[in-house]
Amino acid sequence: MGYSGFRVLLEGFRGQSGWKPVWRDPDPRDEYDVVIVGGGGHGLSTAYYLAKEHGITNVAVLERGYLGGGNVGRNTTIVRANYFLPGNSEFYSHSLKLWEGLEADLNYNVMHSQRGIINLFHSDGQRDAFVRRGNAMINQGDDAELLGPDRIREMLPYIDFSNPRFPVYGGLYHPRGGTARHDAVAWGYARGADTRGVDLIQNCEVTGIDIEGGRVRGVQTSRGPIRARKIALAAAGRSSQVAQMAGLKLPIESHILQAFVTEGLKPVIDHVVSFGMGHFYISQSDKGGLVFGGDLDFYSSYAQRGNLPMKEHVMEAAMTLMPVIGKARVLRSWGGIMDMSPDGSPIIDTTPVEGLFLNCGWCYGGFKAVPGSGFSYAHLIATGRHHEPAAGFRLERFNTGRGLMDEEGTGAQHNLH
Which end of the chain is more exposed for a tag (fewer CB within 10 A), N or C? Predict the structure, then answer.
């Protein structure tokens, strides 16, 4: 079914009776060419690009819950390409270009809003670091603009400029950055994959991976065994648990990242804004809620909930940056399970098991990477070759030490990324 303004108007006159389900709800078949484990943003986009770009449609996406019930529906919806190091910068640049054409490609409104991202800095050292990052972004072909204090006052009049401890020296502006509706991204990719013949199997938990002679043969699930020539893992924070079924120990830890949303307010924040002296970032949704987050909970966990000390920490940063937020009532919070790698960068690669592919370790970059990740992962699965923008995301770098991408300069401690 195609979507358009005319179709919306027509269905209004017809009592909304002509809409059809966005995707099918099929039973799993006995065998597929490719089985994707994980029905979140990365799994769904991989299935879509396998069908669209490579003509591989005998594909099943297996999700133990409902589509979009994991991290793709539990984040702060930020889309950006302001990375610094080679390996990351070209990948996220490629992903942003896909974002910019995504709605036309999917014929689905994902509410992509390029409202711009402003990273504030509060010292001479931070200014120097952001100058370097901005130049790297421009060299990559993306956009960046250094803003002084006067321009920040003009664009962000609601933040605290009188705090002597954290004076605002300026900010790095990324105009093409912004937000998207996370649920709609999952729905759009699900619809696009289903339209091309992919089976989306919900309430289907993978309980085992069948391996014979060093090669995958299929998976065991709560809905019976499924044979497959290729199996692609895209289970985000559960990647370690799923990989263990194939005898793999991954170099990632799972941590909880909390997010928060307030009651709906009149428009006040036009951009995505991050606080340079604390891990805090905020934007305003189309419904008016202020959406914000901060640091990870610094202990490993698989629970989709957070703890009160981290809530307090995030609220402190919010009040420090913009005291006016203290008048807003927080409606709810949620937690996403973050698969944190030692160098803060992801893994898209083959594994020692023939026919088994790996996509994990996205740290804070999972949502903004959804289009690029699916495109590059599908290329690897279909061709056996790494897609050039993601060529640095190899698993072996953690064995050899060559090609590590420490984007934040925080070393090899997972929870510091």
Answer: N
Q: Say if residue 392 is exposed, middle or buried (CB neighbours under 10 Å; 0-12, 13-18, 19+).
A: buried
- Alpha carbon of residue 327 to chain centroid: 30
Last residue of a domain, one of 310, 340, 370: 340
8 A C-beta contact, residue 282 and residue 292: yes
Token readout for 120 is 């504030």
Distance (Å, whole) CA 384 – CA 369: 21
Q: What is the pLDDT of residues 11-46, one digit of tens each?
A: 999 999 888 889 999 999 999 999 999 999 999 999
Is 83 inside any structural domain? no
Two structure tokens written together for 46: 């991989």
pTM for the model: 0.95
Query: Are the C-beta atoms of 85 and 392 separated by less than 8 Å?
Result: no
Chain position carrying tokens 């390409």: 81
Instruction: Please write the tens of the pLDDT for every residue from 129-150.
Output: 999 999 999 999 999 999 999 9
pLDDT for 3: 84
Residue 331 structure tokens = 């409606």
- Most distant CA pair in the chain, distance: 67
What DSSP element (H or E) covers 179? strand 178-179
235: its two tokens? 């289970």
